[in-house]
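Duplicate of #3305? Posting structure anyway:
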């Protein structure tokens, strides 16, 4: 049954009630309230018995409370029956890396048309901890699905994410790629003010990132986008049958191509041949990038943060790290608290030299970067990406647009 009301035409979206019927009566109003914080760690299957012990020790070492047992119990040590493809293995290790260290939480509310699809999309993004669909920035704190054509609320998804694993700038970049940024009160087949594209910022910091994102979008489009930016005034959780709708109804209506969540944010560039790489690179750079070597400590550049900008793969130009996330670890190599995007790097277990470590490579081309350890600053998520300087090229912020990294500017915000 399509939605039909004086301000809403939706030829594609059926609205079932709790019994699954499209004609079911709407549920009683839901009161406004903040999202319940997710305290339990996300469960990730581990694929290495040795690494299980290391992860357990890292949780103990990074814990400064009496909840060690709770944290250990929150990690699922079940071995998968099949290890799957190399990409699947790398994804599992990435989840394992993200589960280490300390977890922080922030929220952003986004309106991207029908909330069924937008919730399903953002649930696929690494670093997103929880999602909840609801009605934002309208009149009144007690509304139902059938009220919102008249109350001014927007169908929205409240995203709880870990800012030490995924940048807000990445969430907003992804948001701009799943909407029509020039459409007014319409996304896909859904028409009405409740389907407007909007960013509802929670604080001054998130608003600043949103403003930078929309400024970049305007440059790309050559005209001002119709995306609305407002401070969040209210958010009313939607009825239960709308929550995780496409999980419950896999064939349900969705105006978003969900496979986009798995696509590279910045497409990979083919590497030159090995012979050409040997000619292009000096001996040490080739040994590190292509033969998984390690440069001597305190021998390279970029060890101490200096100016704002972006670090990219020296060969392919793939965006890897932001200066916003760099810190001086005192180890003699460039150190970062997180990658610039969640799909910047690949991970694999490294048991060489009698150690159990997690190797970090540039995703898609296998260029070796370094390793990641769970001994970084706790207030920044507890991870330390220890990277060979010869694997990197630094682009100052003022040169990023000229070199084709316009969309990465909102990831470099600190002076």
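Output from current build:
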């Amino acid at each position: 049954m399509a939605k039909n009301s004086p301000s809403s035409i939706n030829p594609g979206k059926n609205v079932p009630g709790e019994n699954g019927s499209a004609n079911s009566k709407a549920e009683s109003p839901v009161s406004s309230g903040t999202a319940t914080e997710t305290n339990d760690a996300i469960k990730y299957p581990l694929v290495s018995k040795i690494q299980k012990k290391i992860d357990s020790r890292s949780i103990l070492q990074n814990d400064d409370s009496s909840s060690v047992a709770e944290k250990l119990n929150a990690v699922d040590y079940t071995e998968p029956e099949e290890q799957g493809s190399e990409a699947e293995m790398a994804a599992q290790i990435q989840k394992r890396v993200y589960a280490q260290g300390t977890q922080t939480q922030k929220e952003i509310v986004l309106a991207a048309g029908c909330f069924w699809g937008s919730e399903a999309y953002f649930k696929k993004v690494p670093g997103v901890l929880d999602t909840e669909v609801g009605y934002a920035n309208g009149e009144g704190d007690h509304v139902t699905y059938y009220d919102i054509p008249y109350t001014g609320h927007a169908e929205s998804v409240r995203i709880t994410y870990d800012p030490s694993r995924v940048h807000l700038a990445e969430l907003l970049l992804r948001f701009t790629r799943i909407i029509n940024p020039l459409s007014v009160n319409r996304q896909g087949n859904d028409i009405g003010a409740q389907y407007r594209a909007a960013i509802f910022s929670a604080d001054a910091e998130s608003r600043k990132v949103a403003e930078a994102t929309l400024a970049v979008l305007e440059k790309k489009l050559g005209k001002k986008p119709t995306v609305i930016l407002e401070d969040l005034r209210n958010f009313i959780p939607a009825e239960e049958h709308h929550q995780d709708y496409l999980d419950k109804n896999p064939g349900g209506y969705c105006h978003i191509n969900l496979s986009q969540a798995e696509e590279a944010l910045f497409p990979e560039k083919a590497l030159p041949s090995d012979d050409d790489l040997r000619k292009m690179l000096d001996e040490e750079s080739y040994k590190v990038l292509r033969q998984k070597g390690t440069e001597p400590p305190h021998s390279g550049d970029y060890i101490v943060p200096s100016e704002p900008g972006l670090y990219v793969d020296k060969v392919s130009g793939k965006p890897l790290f932001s200066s916003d996330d760099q810190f001086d670890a005192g180890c003699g190599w460039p150190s970062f608290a997180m990658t610039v995007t969640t799909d910047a790097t690949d991970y694999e277990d490294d048991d060489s030299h009698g150690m159990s470590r997690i190797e970090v490579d540039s995703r898609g081309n296998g260029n070796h970067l370094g390793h990641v350890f769970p001994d970084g600053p706790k207030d920044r998520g507890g991870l330390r990406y220890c990277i060979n300087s010869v694997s990197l090229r630094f682009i100052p912020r003022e040169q990023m647009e000229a070199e084709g990294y316009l969309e990465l500017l909102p990831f470099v915000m600190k002076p």
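Confirmed duplicate; merging threads. Confidence is low (pLDDT under 50) at residues 1-12, 14-83. The radius of gyration is 23 Å.
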